[in-house]
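tool=predict chain=A
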Amino acid sequence: TGAGESVSLTAFFRKYPRYGLFLAGVALIFVGHSFINNFTIQLVENVGGGTEEMGRLGAVMAVLELPGMLGFGLLLRKVRCSSVMKLSMALFTVKVTLTWLAGSIPALYGATMFQVLTYALFIPGSVQYAQEVIAPEDAVKGQAFITSMLTLGTVASSLAGGRLTDLFGVSAAMLVFAAVSLVGSVLGIAGVEKTKRHGEG
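tool=predict ok
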């Protein structure tokens, strides 16, 4: 493949083997993350809340995403993008685990606070990370694969989450997804390549 020419799908993963590991981790992490978003009412009801608490929790999640996303550019002046990605991927599992352990509405709010360091950093971070580790001619594929993994994780969460919740209850389902998220964090972090600090040559 010549310079400036996009590689095939198979060649892409031969060229970027660790990126494939990163993508696998992303898919698994978003299974757990999406379960919280898709089954919020069940999680709230499990600790004695209702639709009012669910609405407030959703609003808190949305508000918490703003500072992380808006401040991402400033953060990159101090920290490598790869370090931000590792942090956010690790904290996704912390958030899912704390959600599983939550026994009250305040505890759910506590777990939700991690939104500012997980989803809010991961979304802009994944775009920046792909730009830094994928060659310009392969950039479209790199971005598309991330979007595909987010979608895959969301769909898998909806299908498996509903089934597990029906069979074993929401707490058992959360435990399963905390384990899945842990595997995803390990794979994803292992796949993250060290990037340069902004301003480095």
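Residues 139-168 form the longest helix (30 residues). The chain is about 80% helix and 0% strand.
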